[in-house]
Amino acid sequence: MTSTLLQEAKSLNERTVALRRQIHQHPELGLHLPRTQKAVLDALAGLDLDIALSKQTSGIVATLKGARPGPSVLLRGDMDALPMPEETGLSFASQESGCMHACGHDAHTAMLAGAAHLLHDYREHLNGSVRFMFQPGEEGPGGAKPMLDEGILDPDGTLQSVYALHVEPELPSGLIACRTGAILAAVDTGFARLVGKGGHGSMPHNAIDPTPVACEIVQAIQTLVTRRFDVFDPVVATVGRIQSGTVSNVIPEFAEMDITLRSLSVETRERLAEGVERLIRKIPEAHGLSVEFELEKGYPPTVNSAAGEQSVKRACEAVLGADKYFQMPAPYMGAEDFSYLLERFGGAFVFLGTAPPGQEPQPCHSSRMMLDEEALPSGVAMYAALALQELSAGVV
Q: Could you tell me how far CA 302 lies from the centroid of its own chain?
């Protein structure tokens, strides 16, 4: 059976690609994606699935029940896009101004729908159920936790494992990459406003200039990261925005800073936030400025269980071949709200290589990001294999 999954997924690829392109042309943002939700429901029409709709979001949970009772496995695909222009030149490029599927969520959704069609033909082999989670809001404000809190992911308390695939356009097409432990970071965001005293650019002694103080904070944060944290439990602190002033001869009254903080453990997450806040409050105080500071807690680290990674490896070797599995030596410092599911259930977050052959790969969140649609059957087959592996002993 495992030897046929990839071929069956390839036979579905025309359908998978069509859905991906339909969603790509009409991207939607955030938690409410009515057009995308309808496209998914239309794609699932005719299958023997129990459909549950999220009351707080456009999320969908479609449940495929097996022939015999048993636990449930959840497979997730996120549906939302990013608020940015598209510059790919594709024939099916976004038709929505300032909105693009630059992180591959269109492909995740299409692959998950493809897996629903593929597994539908194997429902007699399932000892339990497969839940297909179509999730909005991963790029913000976060759609996984509202759906989790609603109870629609695990209504009967039988959910034993969760899996999510994510395209990686900088990895070779068709490669599966995973690891045990942290695979993605926690993310927090700091907002700072340094308030000084404005004045004439020729007379800085009569003003309290916030701009050089903001620059001093940037340097201090980098020193904090390199001198206070173990390189084997790394953190990242990036000041992504500094804004102050209007023209060259005016000293502004205030400067603003936005900072992203990334970490891989609970302990370093707290230490990093405390250290950055201390610098932002104390350095301006030393220069006679006042400070307004706010820290917004984001997604926790995405941590794979050892059993989850082993399931991914076995499924990959059985369906795609041993040469298609890559054990990541280190995590990425991006963040994911699938982390909330992995905090509660065992499982794994998995990368699928989608680098277009013969082209210079563009990373996720690039306005020129493209992916190899020939890799999509590998994702569909992996979704199906993971479910069959856990719910039908001896099949995979």
A: 10
| pLDDT averaged per 10 residues, the chain (length 396) | 87 98 98 98 98 98 95 98 98 98 98 98 94 98 97 93 98 98 98 98 97 98 96 95 97 98 96 98 98 97 98 96 97 97 97 96 97 98 96 61
Beta bridge partners of 60: 53, 134
3-state helix, strand, coil in the chain (%, to 5): 35, 30, 35
Catalytic residues: 299, 373
pLDDT in tens, 316-341: 999 999 999 999 999 999 999 999 99
Whole-model pTM? 0.93
Q: 48: how many CB neighbours lie within 10 A of its CB?
A: 8
Q: Position of tokens 């005719």? A: 46
Structural domains in the chain? 2-182+301-391 (3.40.630.10), 186-297 (3.30.70.360)
Q: Could you give the CA distance from residue 179 to residue 315 in angstroms, rounded to a whole number?
A: 14
Are the CB atoms for 293 and 250 separated by under 8 Å?
no
Q: Which residues pair with 304 in a beta bridge?
A: 181
The strand pairing partners of 162, in sequence order, are 74, 347
d(CA 252, CA 325): 54
